[in-house]
Specification:
The chain has 254 residues and is α/β, with parallel strands linked by helices. The chain has a single domain, classed as TIM Barrel. The protein has 10 helices and 9 strands. The strands form 2 sheets. It has a 7-stranded parallel beta sheet with strand order 1-2-3-4-7-8-9. Strands 5-6 form a two-stranded antiparallel sheet. Strand 2, helix 2 and strand 3 form a beta-alpha-beta unit. The longest helix has 18 residues. The chain starts with a strand and ends in an 18-residue tail after the last helix. The protein binds zinc ion (ZN) (2 copies). One zinc ion binds next to loops. One zinc ion (ZN) binds next to loops.
Length: 254
């Protein structure tokens, strides 16, 4: 069976720069099955159950899996009758309140695009240990509020800009993160856009028995449904098919 790319965005419903027709066509060209997961959260267009229902209804017209990407920290409760219209919920961190100050990760995104070469996250974060503890506390709080299926781009966090991930991301954070994901039945996303997880976290994830989901996090058609990095990681670390998050009814694009 073709791989399922769970994570794509459209212009209709969030910050993609493509129509859903373009996403479906790109999936066909790339030979993958596709899921949509537009942004939801208090700061997004999809900020209520009513709008999520409209989004789910829209998605039923297309041969796609139905997901959403909730902004952790600015989430809202998805009611059961809304949730049942969706195949899965991705929860991702795009900003965090650390010691009372809200940090946006938009600087990090600019840095990855080469638009902010002298970005120094430590000016924002101050203390890595506090930052990573706060990250885990946020996930714990969100997972106790409602069920998530996937943690989106797990290391898209400002420390990413500080150097090689193995040197920057603490091992205690990796271990506690994996324990938290397994306890709550949440899959770790392998993101083609963010090239995450890095090797050590992948290896530990496989050993710990976590599930993995695959995502291009496509916003623009050229990068949409491209799964080179996830495929490389799956083969490098021998991830079995049964460990890859899938939605059996996700339809193959014609
Ligand atoms: Zn995201
Ligand atoms: Zn996304």
């Amino acid at each position: 069976m073709k791989l399922l790319d769970c994570h794509n965005h459209t212009a209709e419903w969030s910050d993609g720069r493509q129509s859903i027709e373009q996403v479906v066509e790109k999936a066909r060209l790339e030979g993958v099955r596709v899921g949509l997961a537009d942004h939801a959260g208090l700061g997004e267009y999809l900020n209520s159950n009513d709008r999520l229902l409209a989004y789910a209804d829209f998605l039923t017209q297309y041969p796609v899996a139905r997901g959403l990407e909730m902004d952790l920290g600015r989430s809202f409760i998805v009611q059961p009758q809304t949730r049942e219209k969706f195949d899965y919920m991705i929860g991702s961190v795009h900003g965090m309140e650390v010691e009372g100050v809200r940090l946006s990760f938009s600087h990090l995104i600019s840095w990855t695009k080469g638009q902010m070469p002298d970005y120094n996250p430590l000016l924002q974060i101050k203390n890595l240990e506090t930052f990573f503890k706060t990250h885990l506390t946020l996930l714990e709080k969100e997972y106790s509020a409602q069920k998530y299926d996937i943690l989106g781009h797990p290391t898209m966090l400002p420390p990413l800009a500080l150097g090689k991930s193995e040197d920057v991301f603490p091992e205690w954070w990796e271990d506690q993160l994996l324990t938290l994901l397994i306890k709550n039945g949440v899959a770790l996303e392998i993101s083609n856009r963010w090239l995450t997880p890095y090797d050590r976290l992948m290896k530990k994830g496989v050993e710990a028995g976590v599930k993995f989901s695959l995502g291009s996090d496509g916003h623009e058609t050229p990068k949409t449904c491209v799964l080179d990095y996830p495929k490389e990681m799956i083969s490098k670390f021998g991830v079995e098919q049964s460990r890859v998050f899938d939605i059996s009814r996700a339809i193959e694009a014609a």
